[in-house]
Amino acid sequence: MSQPEPPTIASDGLPARPTGAWVHDKKYYLERYLSIFTRGVGPKWNGKLSYVDLFSGPGRSIIRQTAEEVEGSPFVALNCEFAKYVFVDVPDVIDSLQVRLGRHAKLPHVSLIRGDCNEVIDAVRAAAPADHLTLAFVDPTGLQIRFRTIQRLVQDRKVDLLMTIQFGMGIRMNLRQYSQSESNALTSFMGNDSWRTDVEDGGSPSLIGHRILSRYMAQLRQLGYETVQNREIAVRSDQNNLLLYFIVLASRHPRGQDFWRKITQIGPSGQRHLNW
Prior knowledge:
By secondary structure, the chain is of the alpha/beta class. 37% of the residues lie in helices and 21% in strands.
């Protein structure tokens, strides 16, 4: 039996999340969107903004190839003006984040929730004030987020969703395994097994995967959300340019969609994208 890999330890002596260099791209878009979101709608909402991070991580990542340490999403969010922060992850991860937060000036505005977000979603809702506009960052490493959890999170609330959808390792590369199993992560992720129709229609794993992705987007629209068509940001591995995941903004308000268009006009490399 193979032994589990030892935890990755950062320079502060605490566990960190191992990742690839692509984490810089994700951080780039997260920083830009949180900044424009808080500055753009904060005054209208009298500062009543909440940030929810369902897979917060321990607050620091380490790039495997270079050992470079990168600030995690909780600290990116703490650099922006939210009235409430809710960080969710499994107990040992939140324990590390809590130590890293130390005596942070915004600690009185932070709620730390230990557990699988799918199981503690009602506690998340209780921690995020119902009268706030909430931005939820949903960044799993695979297909751990269940669609019913998304439904519960946004029920009767004003919530925008900034999501990473794990297309490569999460959907495309595991299609055969999912197809051979009655109960699987893809069915929980979608909230149903309608994706089997996309598999039966045939084609390459990539083509099938894009059909499933389109189906997921359609399900978000059924919840009243719109995504910015052709502005799903593709994040690729730095070694073989393999498509890993898409970053998607889902908002019920046109202003959120407009913010996303603005912050995606210029990519991390400085290249300007066409104004689709």
